């Protein structure tokens, strides 16, 4: 269990300490579950009332919220949620995916391993692979021929990286993900599907995080490209030749068709489906379960789909939608009669 003096934590977070700095903090917890040896945070003033019953040893909050605090120690900051993220990183006890090089790992003699590399049990590292300094490859991973992985990148167990893939520095790939599988490329030859070999690769930038069981296909001719600072949640599918701009966030279950181009600083809500061969501009937000069929050229928030309704209301709504064409024609007929006087 990690532990740190509250005064030391305040110094690392550049926070203003109020109260006893000698308290030993052993973890971060929510306001309703925190105990006397843990620290919590208040990021929304609507929950000030919970401070009265909170049993945490210390709390992170803003100066305006401080008068409502009954906890004996506090760290005063301007952005509590960002501070929470930073202190969670300081207090993190997640183990590394691997330590040292397991005897059962199969490493080709041509592979180049940087300093302080760790490789887990039963992992296969093929010909010409380059692993940067401090990379950690978990158990049962497969790293295909001539793949390059940058410094300080971590792969959890059972990640598959195909051949000639490029992955940058400080990346994190969760278990079960597949990078560089074939894109869905076929030609129809008189009713029979002719497979088209996928000759491109996947290029992933620095500080990218990819969730569990996500698949990123290699390009057909050009490359599939994931920009710097992109975060991708679990169970997403990114088809061949997709390009995702820097610092875009993609929630779980998103499906992207081939040759889609997404700009920088976008947010794609969970379970959304995005058509291929089009562009989405920078700073676009797509809310969850949306179907994006056309390009987006203006930054903003976009939504589609019907939210959950009681069944009777939903059936009436769908019935209206099914008849929207008839209603539109009737409306046009009425407009013509009115306009013609």
Automatic annotation (TrEMBL):
GO terms for molecular function: N-acyltransferase activity; UDP-3-O-[(3R)-3-hydroxyacyl]-glucosamine N-acyltransferase activity. Residues 23-89 form the UDP-3-O-[3-hydroxymyristoyl] glucosamine N-acyltransferase non-repeat region domain. The active site is at 240 (proton acceptor). Keywords: Acyltransferase, Lipid A biosynthesis, Lipid biosynthesis, Lipid metabolism, Repeat, Transferase. Pathway: Glycolipid biosynthesis; lipid IV(A) biosynthesis; lipid IV(A) from (3R)-3-hydroxytetradecanoyl-[acyl-carrier-protein] and UDP-N-acetyl-alpha-D-glucosamine: step 3/6. Its EC number is 2.3.1.191. It catalyses: a UDP-3-O-[(3R)-3-hydroxyacyl]-alpha-D-glucosamine + a (3R)-hydroxyacyl-[ACP] = a UDP-2-N,3-O-bis[(3R)-3-hydroxyacyl]-alpha-D-glucosamine + holo-[ACP] + H(+); UDP-3-O-[(3R)-3-hydroxytetradecanoyl]-alpha-D-glucosamine + (3R)-hydroxytetradecanoyl-[ACP] = UDP-2-N,3-O-bis[(3R)-3-hydroxytetradecanoyl]-alpha-D-glucosamine + holo-[ACP] + H(+). Homotrimer. This is UDP-3-O-(3-hydroxymyristoyl)glucosamine N-acyltransferase. It comes from Candidatus Profftia tarda. The lineage of its organism: Bacteria, Pseudomonadati, Pseudomonadota, Gammaproteobacteria, Enterobacterales.
